[in-house]
From TrEMBL:
UniProt lineage: Bacteria, Bacillati, Bacillota, Bacilli, Lactobacillales
Protein family membership: Belongs to the Fur family.
InterPro entries tied to this protein: FUR, Fur_C, WH-like_DNA-bd_sf, WH_DNA-bd_sf
Pfam families: FUR
Species of origin: Periweissella beninensis
Name the record gives this protein: Transcriptional repressor
Gene3D superfamilies: 3.30.1490.190, Winged helix-like DNA-binding domain superfamily/Winged helix DNA-binding domain
Keyword Transcription regulation part of the UniProt annotation: yes
Taxonomic superkingdom: Bacteria
Length: 150
């Protein structure tokens, strides 16, 4: 996914459309998630953006993330490190997660959304969204584990 200023403006416009105020903190957190794409925890976001806004609190980060998740702009990812990670999700994609180091990669392949259509056809549900996670060993951990075996 290519990130542009219009991506950020589209996300902010969406929040305005659903009646949410665009506070400086909300904008900063949303921009961080859109630009970084690093699947951070709330603590990582807080530590990274407090340099830009020394008045922001960890509680504000948590509350903003909760609001963004509730309004379907951000998703939570349960990673092997047992912490909640967050991801901007306006463009559907799935995740591949390393079971050894916890690294999370985005895969932008929209063919997986056909599963939603199939679920609708088989159940009659009106599908709002879906999340898909695939687990395995990343290339770095594969190399590391092969070195340990020798």
């Amino acid at each position: 996914m290519t990130v542009t200023n219009s991506t950020i403006e589209d996300a902010l416009d969406y929040l305005r459309t659903i009646g949410l105020r665009i506070t400086p903190q909300r904008k900063l957190i949303l921009q961080y998630l859109i630009l970084k794409r690093n699947h951070p925890t709330a603590e990582i976001i807080f530590n990274d953006i407090k340099q830009q806004d020394s008045t922001i609190s960890l509680a504000t980060v948590y509350n903003t993330l909760e609001l963004l998740v509730k309004n379907n702009l951000v998703i939570e990812i349960a990673a092997p490190d047992e912490k909640q990670h967050f991801d901007y999700f306006a463009h559907p994609h799935y995740h591949v997660i390393c079971t050894n180091c916890g690294k999370i990669e985005d895969v932008f392949d929209y063919s997986f959304t056909t599963v939603e259509d199939d679920a609708h056809q088989k159940t009659g549900y009106k599908i709002s969204h879906s999340l898909m996670e695939i687990y395995g060993l990343c290339p770095d951990c594969q190399i590391l584990l092969n070195i340990k075996k020798n």
